[in-house]
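Researcher: Let's try something more involved. This one mixes different molecule types, so please make sure each is placed in the same coordinate frame as the others.
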Amino acid sequence: MELTSTEENYLKAIYHLSDGGKKSVSTNDIAAEMKTKAASVSDMLRKLGEKEVIEYRKYYGLQITESGKRFALQTIRKHRLWEVFLVEKLNFAWDEVHEVAEQLEHIHSPLLVQRLDAYLNYPKFDPHGDPIPDEFGDVRARPRVQLNEMDVDQTGQIVAVKDSSAAFLRYLDKVGAYIGARIKVLDKVEFDGSLEILVDQKKTLFMSKDVSCNILVLQS
Amino acid sequence: MELTSTEENYLKAIYHLSDGGKKSVSTNDIAAEMKTKAASVSDMLRKLGEKEVIEYRKYYGLQITESGKRFALQTIRKHRLWEVFLVEKLNFAWDEVHEVAEQLEHIHSPLLVQRLDAYLNYPKFDPHGDPIPDEFGDVRARPRVQLNEMDVDQTGQIVAVKDSSAAFLRYLDKVGAYIGARIKVLDKVEFDGSLEILVDQKKTLFMSKDVSCNILVLQS
DNA sequence: AAATATATTTAGCTATATCTAAATTAATTT
DNA sequence: AAATTAATTTAGATATAGCTAAATATATTT
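Model: All components are placed in one shared frame. Result:
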């Protein structure tokens, strides 16, 4: 069975919102995420239920099925592999890749995915630090904490961001807080939760809590 | 203005069937090429007319406009660049690329096309020997003849094929008549038009007229 | 427990892209 | 020039994906 691009996008949203099937998701949540209306979501849920990628009981809620998880992970895998390709091979900035990867992820060709993966040397993480599921859907997540939860003097490496809007990514690029940067918390202001950070042992940086809670760090 | 994938496909078909706007094309020709019905084509022609990529007078015929040519060439450019990518970077065989390129050509991102072009080192021809239009739509075609039109003792290089069905391409691969192969006509049988060919100065090959008239050669 | 508020679904509409069958126009025969 | 044939278009369906407005079910107050 094949899914349309729209169905793939809904399923991906459901997968993310439910945190991989753990949490429950409401029709309204999906509508907000997909920037559409609840009525349209209801229609789509019925269809996804018929295709058995979710289990759907109206007014009750939904549950992503094993089959649905495989489809979602396959789409996520393709999205992230293309992001690696765009950044590493075509020199895209990491804040320019999302929109294009959003289109490329819907290309249907198992051979293409397999060859792209090999060409990129089987990457485990995308340019935002998010893990790339392997062909069986297995994910090796790195344990990571939000930057704002770290204490003074603790160190680590930026491995991912929560907000991947172009505006946020541009800001990070500007201040030099890229994925892979080694950081140390120099000071923490109790009043507003803002931080003073040392980046790559040379540059100090002041950061609001709004920013720091969107940065994920692998502690060391 | 943006075209849908379907509109892009129709326009590409019209461009090819009209030989770049030179010949006239009928509704039925388009229907055959697009594997659809004449009624659907009529609908689409009206729409393409409204978008001013063709000039359409019903029952009379159509004419591709300058704007339409630009759109068609842009799609052809993307298709052929992706084919180069698939063959050169992802090790696809030249008979495996078409279907995937058919999907990839509809990705909308001027930056992507520009970067891909640079990454591939501004190729002028695709793996089947067809010219790749530049970003302004300019094409540098190579003068070429059908293999069956060559005389005994003439030499040249295979630069393109007319029939690019998977079956034909597989056959060529098997007998070693790849794009770029240097050939010499050793003998020509008047009776059935079949040929004896020397490939790369070592391998001789017998070839029916049906095959040879689908192979294009740059004479030397 | 009834009333109110919120969430969700259904009904009915729009637009795209397809189809078949009928109608119309153009081209060809006789 | 009339009749026939072929090509093309229109009319009226279907399916997807979206919308608004109305209806219905669930949740929360009072």
